[in-house]
């Protein structure tokens, strides 16, 4: 692909690639010559301005070509270093977040929020609400602990009942079948 068809959009996923329909179109000097000159310009001044315009447009095309070549080279270097687009995005976000944090607006907002937080946490209403929630939490914790202990105790009792029955059956089951149930003690 020739460098005249390079994409200069830095946000484009196809950096450096342009379709054939998207190329720079220089000013047609034949059409421009037919356009009436701005009043007050002599033909010499107009010709000088047109020459300068052509030169600037040519420089723009050259700069776009150089930029596209530099972007390709940058991409190759990143690929060789193992840097991905995601890594670049993370670095950009990190840098942007640091910029926000040192901005005057962020600092003023943070300071104001700190003042409001101080006022709220020092208010009587906040302290009463905090104390109420703290007491409610302690009471809830004690109630759950009591319920948990009761459930645990009941499960333990049930488990021991099952273990005792199995042990009784194992130890005395054969004997009761042999001599009869009337000889064995009742539990």
Structural notes for this entry:
- Residues 39-73 form a coiled coil.
- Keywords: Coiled coil.
- It comes from Acinonyx jubatus (Cheetah).
- Residues 1-14 have a biased composition (Polar residues).
- Residues 1-20 are annotated as: Disordered.
- The longest helix is centred in the last third of the chain and has 56 residues, at 124-179.
- The protein has a domain at 124-176.
- The chain has 187 residues and is mainly α.
- Residues 1-6 and 16-23 have low confidence and may be disordered.
- It is elongated and about 130 Å long.
- The chain has helices at residues 29-34, 43-81, 85-101, 104-122, 124-179.
- The chain is built from five helices and no strands.
- The string of secondary-structure elements, in order, is HHHHH
What number is the mean pLDDT?
78
SS-derived structural category: mainly alpha
In terms of DSSP E residues, the strand content is under 5%
* Fraction of residues in H or I helices: over 70%
Number of beta-strand segments:
0
Structural Rg: 43 Å
Number of alpha- plus pi-helical segments? 5
Intertermini distance:
98 Å
Shape: elongated
Low-confidence stretches: 1-6, 16-23
Largest sheet: none
């Amino acid at each position: 692909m020739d460098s005249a068809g390079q994409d200069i959009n830095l946000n484009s996923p196809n950096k450096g690639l342009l379709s054939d329909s998207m190329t720079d179109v220089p000013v047609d000097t034949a059409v421009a010559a037919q356009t009436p000159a701005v009043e007050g310009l002599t033909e010499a001044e107009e010709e000088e301005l047109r020459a300068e315009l052509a030169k600037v447009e040519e420089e723009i095309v050259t700069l776009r070509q150089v930029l596209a070549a530099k972007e390709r080279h940058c991409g190759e270097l990143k690929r060789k270093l193992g840097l991905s687009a995601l890594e670049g995005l993370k670095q950009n976000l990190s840098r942007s977040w640091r910029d926000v944090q040192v901005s005057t607006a962020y600092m003023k907002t943070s300071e104001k929020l700190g003042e409001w937080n101080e006022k709220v946490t020092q208010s009587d209403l906040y302290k009463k609400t905090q104390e109420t929630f703290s007491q409610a939490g302690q009471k809830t914790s004690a109630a759950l602990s009591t319920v948990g202990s009761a459930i645990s105790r009941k499960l333990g009792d049930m488990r021991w009942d099952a273990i005792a029955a199995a042990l009784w059956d194992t130890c005395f089951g054969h004997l009761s079948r042999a001599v009869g149930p009337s000889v064995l003690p009742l539990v």
